[in-house]
Amino acid sequence: MRPSKRAADELRPVRIERGVSRHAEGSCLVRFGATEVLCTASLEDKVPGWLRGGGKGWVTAEYGMLPRSTTERMRREASSGRQSGRTLEIQRLIGRSLRAVMDMGKLGERQITVDCDVLQADGGTRTASITGGWVALHDCVRWMAARDMFVSEPLIDHVAAVSCGVYAGATVLDLDYPEDSEAETDANFVITGGGKLVEVQASAEGDPFTEEQLGEMLALAKTGVARLVELQKLAIA
């Protein structure tokens, strides 16, 4: 039995609320159970120096956790003068995931930065950030479309992410913190709306996992992401 009493293939309750920031070109508040992430997409009329003059745009991401997003206060990374390795790894993952479904040539020489700020953490903050980040990115692109800022659609597909793992000997979908902290295997899957894999992160925390278990986790992840994509579609409808 899972601590949350959920079935092995059951997501936590997922909610996506759009338009939560007055100033950002795109924004949403995404909730995976008790995990809450504010995602904003900001458009700038410039690109990194190494892209200047090439006619292509860029999508990047930043990620951070508020001090009391966890059970005990965390020190702000800004006060320590540097970002942790975990933060850098997660924001690079978010950026790669979103770029996988964008045609940079159609964006023009512009940059969209998706900021993902964790308000409350209960496991799966990176997967929630990617899922909600796509919605914020979508709304930013729609903001651009309303102003005739591109000729053809640069956003080519959905992308979402979900965690899976081996907990108490069983493969399960969408781990919350009690499961994540005790899982024998922890994995994250980033998958497009068309079912293509963008990234797979999997590691054994205890006993090594089998190829069969990896296949079971992938099957759960595909099912979970398909549901998340449907929720994205409902949110933007």
From TrEMBL:
Keyword Nucleotidyltransferase (UniProt): yes
Top-level taxon: Bacteria
Residues the entry annotates as binding phosphate: 86, 124-126
Domain named Exoribonuclease phosphorolytic: residues: 10-140, 159-223
Record keywords: Nucleotidyltransferase, RNA-binding, rRNA processing, Transferase, tRNA processing, tRNA-binding
Catalytic reactions of this protein: tRNA(n+1) + phosphate = tRNA(n) + a ribonucleoside 5'-diphosphate
EC number: 2.7.7.56
Keyword RNA-binding: yes
GO molecular function: 3'-5'-RNA exonuclease activity; tRNA binding; tRNA nucleotidyltransferase activity
Subunit text: Homohexameric ring arranged as a trimer of dimers.
NCBIfam families: RNasePH
Family note: Belongs to the RNase PH family.
Protein name: Ribonuclease PH
Provenance organism: Microbaculum marinum
